[in-house]
Amino acid sequence: MSHIVVNTLTILRTFVCVSEANSQLRFAQTGEQIQRMTNSTFLRGTWVKLTLVAGTALALTQPVLAQTTLTGAGATFPEPIYTKWFSQYQSIGKVQISYTANGSGGGIKAVTDGTTDFGASDMPMTDEQISAFKEKQKGSILLFPTVLGAVVPSYNLPGVSKPLNFTPEALAGIFLGKITNWNSPEIAKANGGVSLPDLKIVVVHRSDGSGTTFCFTDYLSKVNSEWKSKVGKGTSPEWPTGLGAKGNAGVSGLLIQQKGAIGYVELIYAIKNKLPYGNVKNKSGEFVKADLASVTAAAAALKAMPADFRVSITDEEGKGVYPISTFTWLLVPSKFADSSKEKAIVGFLKWAISSGQSMVESEDYAKLPASVVAQEQKQIGSIQ
Amino acid sequence: MATSTLSQQDSRLAVHSLFKRARGGDEIAYLLTLASAVGILVIVGLIVVELWINSQPTVHRFGFSFLTGTRWDPNGDHFGALPFIYGTCVTSLLALLIAVPFGVAASIFLAEMAPPGISNVLTFLIELLAAVPSVIYGLIGIFVLVPFNRDYLVPVLTHLFGYLPIFKGDFYGVSFLSAGLVLSVMVVPFIVSVSREVLLAVPREQREASLALGTTKWETTWQIVIPNASTGIIGSIFLALARALGETMAVTMVIGNTPKITASLLSPGYSIAAVIANEFAEASGSLYVSSLIFLGLVLFGLTIVINALARIFVITTQRRGS
Question: What is the chain A residue with the closest CA to B270?
Fold first, then answer.
């Protein structure tokens, strides 16, 4: 009987040692310091006990557990920049953030169910989704635009090297299945001097539900009334025509192989994979090539940003504005039960919309305009 | 104090007798195997119950018309499963149509005709095919099979059989045909490795007796060995069918993901597993999500129905044969 008590005491004592080690490590600034501390006599003693009782594996994970950890899930489109941000911020803010790119819908679901600390989405949450969050989490959810992206029409047209110009009518007509040949007058009209082949148009669209599809169909719904009534906007609408391909990779795979194919992909994906893409006519009547400047211009052209940032910036009016642009948002609950998590997320958001923005363009994302950043800083203050 | 010692003694006795009985092992083996068997049933039951509960909004809204509906419009809250059921059946049957003759023939060669050394090496290589991740099959499908179909196979097919409705219409590569071909490669290893084992298990005496009666080697294989192994071969085909019905990744990459019912194998289509994988992550709204979950239940039911039909078919043909 008595040896059981002794055993329990030993185990308890070891736990105390571990938590002591944790509290020391929590203040470790960098990996170097952790290294230095690991070498100190006090810790060496702790490590020995730990190794004896819990095994080396547990001991090795201790420095990581000592930091505040945040989990997030959602949109795949901003994943590259988020991953970069999170790894940079880990040493700045002593916060470890892990992110699962399982799609915008997945992000909204995860933060609503409380399975992650925050979500991420390429489309603004709907009223229905926001009230579902309120009902489940007894608090409100805040949307923070982080970067901007764009969707571009990409195509495989042998013999045409110059970027094609697309009018909204031509794009809607093609994706409605009404314009079926590349040499049709609707396309030729905007492309004087380009000899368009007599080739059947093969429409390719995303088959997996996607924020890219949402942005593209949101644009078509704004510029074409028939599209709006027949198809509408959504992450996977009922396509009137065409082939469905999984992911940006699937769409580009079909585009590369199928002569006469047209599809839509994210701007970053098109740039990184050197896919040809066309210019799109904006509301002011110019044909604009999608690039970082023209996408930021779309956000800056927004006349009135709503207080909750739920806004679509497709088909904005203004000089040099690329019309199929979108924000991507982080979805952050306004209340955190754990104050260390609250501090961590506030710190990260402040950093991401200020210093973090300088890393954005090297990853081919468009920066937030200054006016949006100022408005977001106010909203950060309301996180409790 | 005294009672506690007594009960301690009692429990010691109980443990002792349990060990004594366990030496024979019968009871324990019975209980363990029973628990495993019941456990599997319980898991299957729980899956069905869970799917059924979560698909209630769709069941209430559409009822049986969900199974016969042909429109899939998440924006308009309009959900019908028929194009997906059709696509799943067509691609799986096409895969079996191609894989069964090849698979059975290969297993006969490996078991009956090839020298043992070659047979073992080939079997190992064929079983490797089963270990290739399905996304690899999908990628090979997109980048190799689809262009090959478009440039060589389909022009020949339409030239020879273009009058048949199953080979009519435009071909863009991704289609029922491509999905069926990819699936057939994926299910062949199941047929070959199981059938070969079954053929090898046919007693040597059976072959010797037949050969002693003056039959050729092929006659022995065809009339003695294969009928003996037929149950096992059919079992391997069921296994292949189950794999084909549920395959997701490779199919979605080459089927074209278009929920339409067309007679032509050259047209793009959709399958149940593919639409669930494609749309579940981004599905918003309870009716949309529950429709996808109900599709999962439909796939479950479809597997059971097809398996049952196949089994009935086998039983009736075997009776007629004997």
Answer: A244
